[in-house]
Design a protein that fits this description.
mainly alpha, 67% helix, two-stranded antiparallel ribbon, 9% strand, Helix Hairpins, two-stranded parallel sheet
Length: 247
């Protein structure tokens, strides 16, 4: 028997399948962005030029895009304010600030440690203030540290969650393929029953039983993966909440 959780997940999968039949002109801005990004990533190329690719994307779609770019074998030039992407993907930066353009080689964390953003540095008035006064006026966690912590959590979340999502999608595809095969066997046994082919009916019955067992086993595995996915997601969400960060 399929559990409510798995059945609910399967219904959501069926709904997403129907969305794939929509015409482009009726899609929302975010959906059009997903289609365009999918088309770009599916084409053979060795260079990607992406301008704020996470605009209009929810967290799940952003994580999927990050994983796809991370697995891309070519080079990617990305204009972005998304620090999760910067921490996870970037190793060379063209920085526009203070009316200047500079190039920095290294990780984003190295950039923050060695250069940083001008609007997050202490100004002259702050440096001249008494240390005790600055400590009292400053938030417990600075804006710079808050952004770094959030990006770190999101990067770790992607490394854990994305493989689980891939496994879930693969298992769903395997279930669908076996269910199509099961439907064909059911049609075959109906046809064989109509003409009284006993041996054929017996063989088809064995095949159907075996296939149903395989499908039930896959659903059991899918339930475990979904539970793990939800548990891991809650763990990272709780970590974000503990830091007082937006999820």
């Amino acid at each position: 028997m399929r559990t409510p959780e798995v059945a609910g997940h399967r219904r959501r999968h069926d709904v997403r399948g129907r969305h794939g039949l929509k015409k482009i002109e009726v899609l929302s801005g975010g959906e059009k962005s997903r289609v365009l990004l999918g088309k770009i990533l599916a084409q053979k190329s060795n260079l990607l030029l992406l301008d704020e690719p996470t605009n209009h994307l929810d967290m799940e779609s952003s994580e999927a895009l990050l994983a796809a770019i991370d697995g891309f074998e070519g080079a990617a030039i990305i204009v972005t304010h998304d620090e999760m992407f910067l921490h996870t993907l970037a190793n060379r930066f063209i920085v526009f600030q203070g009316g200047r353009v500079t190039v920095f080689n290294g990780s984003y964390q190295n950039f923050l440690d060695k250069v940083g953003w001008e609007d997050e540095r202490e100004g002259p008035s702050q440096r001249s203030a008494a240390p005790a006064q600055r400590s009292a006026d400053r938030d417990p966690v600075s804006k710079k540290d808050s952004r770094r912590i959030r990006a770190d959590i999101m990067a770790r979340r992607s490394k854990v969650i994305n493989p689980l999502k891939t496994k879930i999608a693969d298992m769903e595809s395997a279930i669908e393929a076996k269910e199509r095969r099961l439907s064909a066997l059911n049609n075959d046994i109906i046809a064989a029953s109509g003409i009284g082919k006993g041996e054929t009916i017996a063989q088809l019955s064995r095949d159907i039983h075996r296939l149903r067992m395989e499908i039930d086993s896959l659903f059991d595995g899918l339930e475990v993966l979904i539970s793990e996915y939800e548990e891991k997601s809650k763990t990272f969400d709780a970590e974000m909440d503990e830091q007082g960060l937006a999820i």
